[in-house]
Amino acid sequence: MRAPLPDALRPIALATAAALVLGACSQAATPPAGQATQLPKVTVLTAQTTSVPLASELPGRSAAHLAAEIRPQVSGIVQKRLFREGSEVKAGDTLYQIDPASYQAALDSALASQARAEATLATAKLKADRYAGLVDIKAISRQDNDDAQAALLQARADVATARAAVQTARINLGYTRITSPISGRIGRSTVTAGALVTANQATALATVQQLDPIYVDLTQSSTQLLELRRRIAKGEVKREGDAVPVTLTLEDGSPYAHDGTLAFSEVSVDESTGSVTLRAEFPNPEGLLLPGMYVRASVTQGETAGAILLPHQAISYDARGNAVAMIVGSDGVVQARPVTLSGSRDGQWIVTAGLAAGEQVITEGLQKVRAGIPVSAEPAATAQPAPLAAR
After folding, report:
1. CATH: 3.40.190.10, 3.40.50.620, 1.25.40.10, 1.10.287.470. Which one for 101-174?
2. % helix / strand / coil in the chain, to the nearest 5?
3. I want to staple 284 with a disulfide (CB 3.0 to 4.6 A). Which of 56, 170, 212, 309 is the partner?
4. Per residue in 63-85, pLDDT tens?
């Protein structure tokens, strides 16, 4: 067992131990001679300007190109339904037959009334002609002649009324045969044979919809539309012609095989949503699109000249939510550069302001750097993707 140090030697021992510890720490903190501090390594992409189609991703729903609700124009009992639900029908095809018996009887009655009126007219004309000759020789009074002429006019009016009644009865008889006003696909029937229907009833008997071509109604915020028009006016976005191409992505994420065009833009803004409705027209030969389907559309509304394409990971956001790109300056020091984004395309941001061609944008290693520190920049291993306009 070691004997304890005398009280007089304890301060000296403690001082010696402290000096040894400090010396060891100093040696550990001092890097070996010739070894420099290692800079963070980042991957950079050289910014290149190009012309990029300016496309907006908009939600929408499909709608029939033409739609007609089938309603009876006369009342009666349905005798037959003459179509198969879900089938294609042509304009003029008979869809329902209403019992025509009472309408045929009404037509026969109107024809009889017309014949009676025409017979009365013939008699009135003969009498008027005869009286016209007699009044000249004063064989009858002038009053009798005036009465005969008035009776002739009355008879002619009665004939016109009778003919109109015949025409009305014939039209009503024709309405007992309910036909399709358009060509298209007919849906479910709401009535069967034997049902009583009434003229212009609220419930449609069936609906016929024309699905080729088909409409897609899209919604775009009014702020986006104003920004687009402002940029077109300033020349930042160019448009060629009136045809605006549109592509679709279906509900399951698959692309729609046929491209469409923008048909028109609504002239007013929806006050409740602050959005504008755009209508696109698409061919639908296979009948894949049905009314009411939810889709996403890419609307090419112009072309942005001088844009820069960057991968999504090259853009970060500051505390205010503004887009920022980190670049490496000519001195090798990182700079934070606010940028303006105009949407994305194929996994790349479209940068329209804030960067210049030739600048080195950090794409990998962002988590290791901040503005103001020097870095070791290496070019990206893969080439920058080809401009979207050339694809």
Report:
1. 1.10.287.470
2. 30, 35, 35
3. 212
4. 999 999 999 999 999 999 999 99
CB atoms within 10 A of CB 107: 21
| Phi, psi of 106, deg, nearest 5 | -65, -35
Residue 54, judged by CB atoms within 10 A of its CB (0-12, 13-18, 19+), counts as buried
Give the side-chain half-sphere CA count within 13 A for 24. Answer: 6
Residue 230, classified by CB atoms within 10 Å of its CB into exposed (0-12), middle (13-18) or buried (19+), is: exposed
- The count of other CB atoms within 10 Å of the CB of residue 282 is 25
Q: Which amino acid is at 20?
A: L
The tokens describing 63, both together, are 């709608």
Q: Residue 265 — φ and ψ, nearest 5°?
A: -120, 135
* Rounded CA separation 61/80 (Å): 35
pLDDT, tens digit (0-9, with 9 covering 90-100), for 232-267: 666 555 555 566 788 999 999 899 999 998 887 776
Domain residue ranges in the chain: 49-62+211-383, 72-99+177-203, 101-174
Q: Which positions ≥6 away from 113 have C-beta within 8 Å?
A: 162, 165, 166
Side-chain-side CA neighbours of 218 within 13 Å: the count stands at 28
